């Protein structure tokens, strides 16, 4: 019997893939409508995403097959969604991020900031959190965490080994705390599924035996690890390209409301999400400091506690790593200039409070800009393919001794092909296809009609409940899948009760990044957990309250400064449809809260 159960468990994914579509068949057979057909496709994809019986990107291709077969959408209309403007923005933004990572510019920034913040315990936590959050705004959360965790533990090793040598009664405690489990080159699995990056191998474990640290050192190490993975998730919410759920929101808005006047762009998102990120980051720093360092703030800030030898030893680690990078190369300078230029173009394209270069140089007939944020990102990305990495200068051709050749460009296709998470392109496209299918089939209208009783519930209460729901759901499944499934439903609900759709879609998108409790919730969590020194209970205890803090901060943001950014106090004309004929266009919605 045991062997039978083991065999069934081993084949569980095959069984799910085979029987789940059959189990759900009564829905489209008994209710022969386009709404039921679309619901069947959505439920099937949601369950496949939750169980991960198929790779997420493969599940995202289902609309290409199901929607034409069910008569919901023409195949050509479905396929267009897989390379929308939002997907182009994702690709263009990642081209720049790959260049930053390839030329080690992110490591130089990280070490420079840590040299400024110093190595006092509380300031060391803050320094790592600020650096990680900033880098995570622009490059992959996973790559940021994989780079920062070894640096953090190297600093701890020097800081605490010095303490051990000064205090022989403590024993020779080594603060590396068994950074890896015994199997070398252990890989963190499923990294590409929740944070749009490839699987990254972690550094091999050191073979030198290390005594166990004392309790205080262990807790500081735990706090340091968690501060890195949490700040990577928090930092990603600040920019439109920082994490994939943000792009899902923009794509869903553009797909469901094609006349939205580009309400969600890089500048407007930054104005809303950056202050939210800063507040949440500082509160997370305070919470981790209290939880792992205690309430003795004098000791936490190293006042009269740390010896100069301890501080200098840890500082030397950072300084040595920084010196090993050498002076900035031409490639690093070129990438820096192009990166800053990209950000400036994003902010000034269509800022809203003054005419941007996009509106002036490439105006549309009905207002706005012909160029999009994706246009800008691809423009800078293409430039990186023909800017040389050395200038002036020639290099020896290794294949032809004695021959000179030009230096390679900042980017080449081999580098991009290896580091570009192509699976996320399909995952994003599948989400946009689902949203468009819901609209074409009438499922959105049906859901909106069923949700009209929510009109009597105060909108702030709706937003808080939905944020907690999404934050809980994202602990167990991909944040991309979570936003893909929830946002079209939330849009229909908002239309039904004459509420600005952004009032519920924005906070729920941010809540999808609040994956703090479980190692499997997001790749940064998995990376720090695999380094050792953490138990699931440690992460759950720290993440539980941080989830609550995150929802409260997001609620504060959506009810205060977001009103001036997105005009949430009116039901916008672009959200008007057949489901909202009872709503007054461009008037203050009586059910919408005032800032």
From TrEMBL:
Q: Does the keyword Transmembrane helix apply?
A: yes
Tell me the keywords, alphabetical order: Ion transport, Membrane, Sodium, Sodium transport, Symport, Transmembrane, Transmembrane helix, Transport
Q: What gene name does this entry carry?
A: SLC13A2
Q: Where is this region: Disordered?
A: 162-216
* Manganese listed as a keyword: no
- Subcellular compartments: Membrane
- GO BP term, pick one: cellular response to lithium ion
**PROSITE patterns in the record, alphabetically?**
NA_SULFATE (PS01271)
- Residue ranges of the TM segments: 12-31, 38-67, 87-105, 117-139, 266-288, 330-348, 368-387, 420-437, 457-473, 485-506, 512-532, 544-564
- Composition-biased stretches, type Polar residues, lie in 162-186
- Look up and give the membrane topology term: Multi-pass membrane protein
Q: Which GO terms describe its molecular function?
A: alpha-ketoglutarate transmembrane transporter activity; fumarate transmembrane transporter activity; sodium:dicarboxylate symporter activity; succinate transmembrane transporter activity
Q: State the signal peptide span.
A: none
Q: Where is the composition biased (Basic and acidic residues)?
A: 187-197
Name of protein:
Solute carrier family 13 member 2
Taxonomic path: Eukaryota, Metazoa, Chordata, Craniata, Vertebrata
Which InterPro entries does the protein's record reference? Na/sul_symport_CS (IPR031312), SLC13A/DASS (IPR001898)
Q: Family per UniProt?
A: Belongs to the SLC13A/DASS transporter (TC 2.A.47) family. NADC subfamily.
Please, which domain of life does this record's source organism belong to?
Eukaryota
């Amino acid at each position: 019997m045991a062997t039978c159960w083991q065999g069934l468990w081993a084949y569980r994914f095959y069984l799910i893939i085979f029987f789940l579509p059959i189990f759900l068949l009564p829905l489209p057979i008994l209710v022969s409508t386009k709404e039921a057909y679309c619901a069947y496709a959505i439920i099937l994809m949601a369950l496949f995403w939750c169980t991960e019986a198929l790779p997420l990107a493969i599940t995202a291709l289902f609309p290409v097959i199901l929607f034409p077969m069910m008569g919901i959408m023409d195949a050509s209309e479905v396929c267009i969604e897989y390379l929308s403007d939002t997907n182009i923005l994702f690709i263009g933004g990642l081209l720049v991020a790959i260049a930053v990572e390839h030329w080690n510019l992110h490591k130089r920034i990280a070490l420079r900031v840590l040299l400024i913040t110093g190595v006092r315990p509380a300031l060391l936590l803050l320094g790592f959190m600020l650096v990680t959050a900033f880098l995570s705004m622009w490059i992959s959360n996973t790559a940021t965490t994989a780079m920062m965790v070894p640096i953090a533990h190297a600093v701890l090793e020097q800081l605490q080994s010095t303490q051990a040598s000064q205090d022989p009664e403590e024993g020779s405690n080594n603060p590396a705390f068994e950074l890896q489990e015994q199997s070398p080159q252990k890989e963190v699995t499923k990294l590409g599924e929740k944070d749009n990056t490839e699987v990254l191998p972690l550094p091999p474990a050191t073979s030198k035996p290390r005594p166990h640290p004392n309790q205080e050192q262990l807790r500081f190490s735990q706090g340091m690890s968690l501060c890195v993975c949490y700040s990577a998730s928090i930092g990603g919410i600040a920019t439109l390209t920082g994490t994939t759920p943000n792009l899902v929101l923009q794509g869903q808005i553009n797909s469901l409301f094609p006349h939205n006047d580009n309400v969600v762009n890089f500048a407007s998102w930054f104005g809303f999400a950056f202050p939210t990120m800063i507040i949440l980051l500082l509160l997370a720093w305070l919470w981790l400091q209290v939880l792992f360092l205690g309430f003795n703030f004098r000791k936490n800030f190293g006042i009269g506690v740390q010896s100069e030898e301890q501080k200098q030893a840890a500082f030397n680690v950072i300084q040595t790593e920084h010196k090993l990078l050498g002076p900035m190369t031409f490639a690093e300078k070129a990438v820096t200039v192009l990166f800053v230029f990209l950000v400036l173009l994003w902010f000034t394209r269509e800022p809203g409070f003054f005419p941007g270069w996009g509106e002036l140089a490439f105006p549309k007939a009905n207002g706005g800009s012909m160029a999009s944020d994706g246009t800008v990102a691809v423009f800078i990305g293409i430039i990186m393919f023909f800017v040389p990495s050395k200038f002036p200068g020639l290099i020896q051709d290794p294949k032809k001794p004695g021959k000179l050749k030009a230096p390679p460009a900042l980017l080449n296709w081999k580098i991009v092909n290896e580091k570009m998470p192509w699976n996320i392109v399909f995952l994003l496209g599948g989400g946009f296809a689902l949203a468009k299918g819901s609209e074409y089939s009438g499922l959105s209208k049906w859901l909106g009609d069923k949700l009209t009783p929510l009109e009597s519930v105060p909108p702030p209460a709706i937003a808080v409940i939905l944020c907690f729901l999404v934050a809980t759901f994202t602990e167990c499944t991909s944040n991309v899948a979570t936003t893909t499934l929830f946002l079209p439903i939330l849009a229909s609900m908002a239309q039904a009760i004459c509420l600005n759709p952004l009032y519920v879609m924005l906070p729920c998108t941010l809540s999808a990044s609040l994956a703090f409790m479980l190692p499997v919730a997001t790749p940064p969590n998995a990376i720090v957990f695999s380094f050792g020194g953490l138990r699931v209970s440690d992460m759950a205890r720290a993440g539980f309250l941080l989830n609550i803090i995150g929802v409260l901060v997001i609620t504060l943001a959506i009810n205060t400064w977001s009103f001036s950014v997105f005009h949430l106090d009116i039901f916008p004309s672009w959200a008007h449809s057949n489901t909202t004929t009872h709503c007054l266009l461009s008037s203050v919605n009586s059910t919408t809260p005032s800032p």
